């Protein structure tokens, strides 16, 4: 008999007590109510059986008078449900037209149809409702085949770019039942294929419909498009989000044998005797750019928002006047008082008419953090008008000004601009971020302020450094590289607003700052050297992305002489990073405080240049490639899209998708799908998009499944990093929906995907072991197996995305006796469970005991779980 390993909750309090009679009756009551509700069938708002077989009218069998009229070459063919179906020739103008919209698409609704295609190429839309926009209207929804992915999709056009998709390309000549569901309460869009849920995406804003309903076309940029070549049958529209059970029931009308498959036992056979590729030592890293207040208002230790008064040209935003106890005064931006020989071109003028206390308050980045025994480092530039000399009082105080948490004084300022610095310290303070920073005086007169700075304690006490808790969270991920400084932030919305590295070095008062790509300005406190020092602090290599002559508004610099200065800039930048102090830019780095050069292996040329439809990247990449390789032959160059002008060492691929799609795509780089003759792959941005502002458990499972695919294909995929990494979770502070680590001014937390990545980054070997996974039924199982060649430990990574226990039989060929140990498991009862500032540890890894041993054993994987099981090795699999 095979030994059996059980992954069980080793913690006593996890055992459930028998339910009381009261609980049982309550549950029974709920079940009866739910069953009663479910028995009520939702009636369709329109239902076209397409069984006429003659004429041009397809009657609405719902009784709601939404008859359709066949247009152009639309006709009749053999049906799946009933004798006939709508036949469409794939020709413009051939469709069935309903002269009105049928369901309110801003509320919950469902659209279902059987479809059979003669040709599976291009966009083909089976059902849509016209959009109401006066110019260039677009369908409110498209139940369709997409031309880009070649998959079925329920597409609702919206600002983000993922759709609920089938995960496969249909076969011509086969009937498929499709159902698209918009659930207004969950703001989710789901696609069911043959009665089985294929995909769900969240945070979708619905689109209103008005005008015609189309069967056999979509509407885009004001025109009807997406002509269908095939047959459509039994089309239904409901003004409700149907349940999965209801959808299966409708699908079974056309094919009674359809069922939702249940999880079946699976088998994993590992060949431990023939290790495969080595994992690149740099395999996992981080990606950063200024998005979501990742740096300013995030990692950067600065607490003052708009410290140099440039965020708005007319108003000192984030600042307010303080007039305490009857004091009177005013504040205003003053461009006539720049700080000489600096980039501080606009100052804040403070006029004090009379005391007892007048000043200015800064609200911070959604508050100023306060804790007991917290030391702040304050500094500011100031100049007094004749007759005023201070003193100036600096305080961290409650937002309403009634409680002072920390105070310091600058006794005197002069009529010349000068920089002042003091420390402030809290003692018996609460934990809060409902606080502000105030500079005030009791004396009448005028003074000016600039670059007002208040720093929290920083990691390793670095001046101008980083927030400690976030650095520690990143350190726990054991990253090996930092892809910096973007992302879109590198490119800028325009060429002028690109990341111009030479503006980001040296004393901070000399850095001009610039408008970023995510709706807010950066004054570049985190400049090139700060990025590099951050790498040094966390033992990472910089993966330097250089601006390559393309910006987000679509403008590009022509290859050739126009591009030459940008290429030179990149060469200078590489010299700043790596050059000895005898080089010009190496000497500049030393003057900036860091004589030692930084290690650098990879330089990325641009970001997402596939968006540059001009085709200029071929020439731009070639020009950068030739110049960089000529000077730095050992550097490896990363292209941001496929190029043929030169052969890049590496290509950077990006993936944002629903968890189910990410999981399905875990085979993307398998040898059966992806050749091995081209450049190596760097997956420089990836993330399952579910949960906001940080991913939920299901997203973590999609991410884990995706990562198993990258790890299995380590012969091709040499590095990966999730994006975006950081998000200030205050409303209005973040722009990207799903981000790895969340924080406010005071607190921070890791998402389930963060913890999954910590598990993966700690528990892996250095070689891939070949493994064969055999699944059937409704199993949603993903794996990768690695071995540590130094101590022999084998790491099984297993992801069960199904909501049921997954039995798994494991055979380890060539591994000798496998010792029992402990597994690390990330799971929770509900796939939408997540972590938040208030509940930071709801979904975290737990240690579970594994009983048994031997070269062949059985496991039961928890529903919705990621399991990492170390086997053998010196610690006998103790993680
Ligand atoms: O990670 C967020 C953004 O996604 C990056 O800035 C960009 O490179 C990608 O489009």
Helix fraction by DSSP (H/I, runs of at least 4): 10-25%
> What does the main sheet amount to?
8 strands, antiparallel
SS element count, helices: 12
Oligomer: single chain
Low-confidence stretches: 1-40
**What global shape is seen?**
globular
Structural class: alpha+beta
- Report the C-alpha radius of gyration, rounded: 31 Å
Bound molecules: alpha-L-arabinofuranose
- Span between N and C termini? 28 Å
**Average pLDDT value?**
93
Q: How many beta-strand segments? A: 52
| Strand residue percentage | 25-35%
Tell me the layout of helices and strands.
Layout: E1 8-9, H1 21-39, E2 46-48, E3 57-58, E4 68-71, E5 75-78, E6 84-89, E7 95-98, E8 109-117, E9 124-129, E10 141-145, E11 152-155, E12 164-165, E13 175-183, E14 188-193, E15 196-201, E16 213-215, E17 218-220, E18 223-225, E19 229-238, H2 244-254, E20 266-271, E21 286-287, H3 295-299, E22 319-324, E23 328-334, E24 347-354, E25 357-362, E26 375-384, E27 392-398, E28 404-410, E29 418-425, E30 435-441, E31 445-455, H4 468-475, E32 481-484, H5 488-491, E33 514-515, E34 521-522, H6 528-537, E35 541-546, H7 564-578, H8 584-591, E36 602-605, H9 617-631, E37 636-639, E38 650-657, H10 659-664, E39 680-688, H11 697-712, E40 717-720, E41 726-728, E42 741-743, E43 748-750, H12 752-762, E44 767-768, E45 771-774, E46 781-787, E47 794-800, E48 806-813, E49 822-827, E50 846-849, E51 856-861, E52 865-871
Parallel strand pairs: 20-48, 21-32, 32-35, 35-36, 36-37, 37-38, 38-39, 39-40, 41-42
Antiparallel strand pairs: 1-50, 2-19, 3-4, 4-7, 5-6, 6-19, 7-16, 8-13, 8-19, 9-10, 9-16, 10-11, 11-12, 13-14, 14-15, 17-18, 20-45, 22-25, 23-24, 24-31, 25-30, 26-29, 26-31, 27-28, 27-30, 33-34, 42-43, 44-46, 46-47, 47-52, 48-51, 49-50, 49-52
Helix pairs in contact: 7-8, 7-9, 11-12
């Amino acid at each position: 008999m095979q030994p059996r390993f059980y992954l069980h909750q080793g913690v006593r309090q996890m055992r459930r007590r028998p339910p009381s009679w009261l609980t049982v009756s309550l549950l029974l009551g709920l079940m009866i109510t739910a069953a009663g509700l479910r028995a009520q069938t939702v009636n369709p708002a329109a239902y076209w059986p397409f069984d006429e077989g003659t004429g041009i009218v397809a009657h609405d069998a719902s009784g709601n008078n939404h008859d359709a009229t066949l247009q152009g070459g639309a006709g009749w063919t053999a049906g799946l449900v009933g004798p006939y179906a709508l036949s469409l020739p794939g020709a413009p103008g051939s469709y069935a037209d309903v002269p009105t919209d049928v369901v309110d698409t801003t509320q919950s609704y469902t659209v279902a149809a059987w479809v059979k295609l003669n040709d599976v190429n291009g966009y083909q839309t089976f059902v849509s409702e016209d959009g109401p926009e006066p110019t260039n209207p677009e369908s409110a929804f498209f139940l369709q085949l997409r031309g880009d992915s070649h998959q079925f999709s329920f597409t609702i056009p919206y600002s983000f770019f993922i759709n609920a998709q089938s995960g496969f390309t249909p076969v011509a000549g086969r009937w498929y039942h499709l159902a698209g569901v918009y659930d207004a309460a969950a703001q989710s869009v789901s696609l069911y294929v043959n009665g089985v849920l294929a995909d769900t995406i969240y945070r979708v804003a619905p689109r209103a419909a008005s005008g015609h309903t189309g069967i056999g076309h979509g509407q885009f940029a004001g025109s009807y498009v997406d002509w269908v070549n095939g047959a459509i049958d039994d089309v239904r529209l409901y003004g409700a989000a149907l349940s999965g059970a209801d959808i299966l029931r409708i699908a079974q009308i056309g094919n009674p044998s359809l069922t939702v498959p249940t999880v079946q036992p699976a088998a994993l056979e590992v060949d431990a005797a023939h290790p495969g590729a080595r994992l690149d030592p740099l395999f996992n890293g981080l990606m950063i750019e200024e998005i979501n207040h990742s740096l300013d208002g995030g990692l950067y230790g600065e607490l003052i928002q708009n410290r140099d008064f440039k965020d708005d040209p007319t108003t000192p935003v984030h600042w307010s006047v303080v007039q305490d106890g009857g004091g009177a005064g005013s504040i205003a931006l003053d461009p006539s008082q720049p700080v000489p020989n600096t980039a501080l071109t606009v100052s804040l003028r403070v006029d004090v008419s009379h005391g007892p206390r007048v000043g200015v308050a800064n609200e911070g980045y959604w508050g100023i953090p306060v804790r007991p025994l917290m030391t702040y480092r304050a500094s500011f530039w100031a100049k007094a008008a004749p007759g005023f000399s201070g003193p100036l009082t600096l305080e961290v105080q409650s937002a309403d000004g009634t409680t002072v948490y920390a105070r310091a004084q600058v006794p005197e300022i002069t009529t010349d601009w000068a920089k002042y610095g003091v420390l402030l310290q809290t003692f018996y303070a609460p934990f809060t971020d409902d606080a502000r920073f105030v500079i005030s005086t009791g004396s009448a007169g005028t003074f000016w302020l600039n670059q007002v700075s208040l720093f929290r304690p920083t990691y390793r006490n670095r001046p101008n450094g980083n927030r400690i808790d976030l650095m520690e969270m990143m350190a726990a991920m054991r990253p090996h590289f930092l892809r910096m400084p973007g992302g879109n932030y590198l490119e800028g919305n325009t060429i002028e607003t690109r990341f111009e590295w030479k503006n980001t070095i040296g004393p901070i008062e000399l850095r001009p700052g610039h408008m970023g790509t995510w709706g807010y300005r950066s004054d570049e406190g985190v400049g090139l050297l700060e990025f590099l020092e951050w790498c040094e602090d966390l033992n990472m290599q910089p993966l330097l992305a250089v601006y390559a002559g393309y910006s987000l508004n679509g403008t590009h610099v022509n290859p050739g002489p126009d591009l030459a200065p940008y290429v030179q800039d990149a060469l200078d930048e590489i010299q700043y990073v790596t050059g000895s102090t005898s080089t010009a830019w190496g000497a500049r780095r030393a003057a900036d405080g860091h004589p030692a050069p930084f290690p650098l292996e990879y330089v990325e040329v641009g970001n997402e240049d596939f968006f540059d439809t001009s085709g200029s990247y071929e020439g731009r990449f070639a020009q950068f490639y030739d110049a960089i390789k000529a000077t730095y032959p050992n550097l490896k160059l990363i292209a941001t899209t496929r190029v043929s002008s030169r052969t890049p060492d590496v290509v950077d691929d990006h993936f944002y998708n629903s968890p189910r799609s990410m999981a399905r795509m875990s085979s993307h780089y398998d040898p059966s799908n992806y050749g091995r003759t081209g450049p190596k792959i760097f997956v420089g941005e990836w993330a399952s998009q579910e949960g906001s502002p940080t991913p939920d458990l299901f997203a973590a499972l999609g991410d884990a499944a995706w990562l198993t695919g990258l790890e299995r294909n380590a012969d091709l995929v040499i590095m990966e990093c999730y994006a975006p990494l950081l998000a200030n979770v205050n409303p209005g502070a973040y722009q990207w929906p799903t981000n790895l680590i969340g924080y406010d001014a005071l607190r921070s937390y890791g998402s389930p995907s963060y913890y999954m990545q910590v598990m993966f980054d700690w528990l892996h070997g250095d070689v891939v072991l070949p493994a064969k996974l055999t699944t059937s039924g409704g199993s949603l199982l993903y794996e990768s197996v690695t071995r540590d060649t130094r101590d022999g430990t084998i790491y099984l990574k297993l992801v069960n995305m199904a909501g049921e226990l997954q039995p798994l039989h494991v055979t380890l060929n060539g591994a000798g006796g496998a010792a029992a140990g402990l597994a690390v498991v990330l799971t929770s009862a509900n796939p939408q469970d997540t972590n938040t500032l208030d509940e930071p540890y709801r979904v975290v890894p737990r240690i579970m005991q594994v009983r048994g041993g031997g070269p062949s054993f059985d496991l039961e994987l928890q529903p919705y779980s990621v399991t990492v099981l170390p086997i053998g090795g010196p610690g006998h699999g103790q993680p």
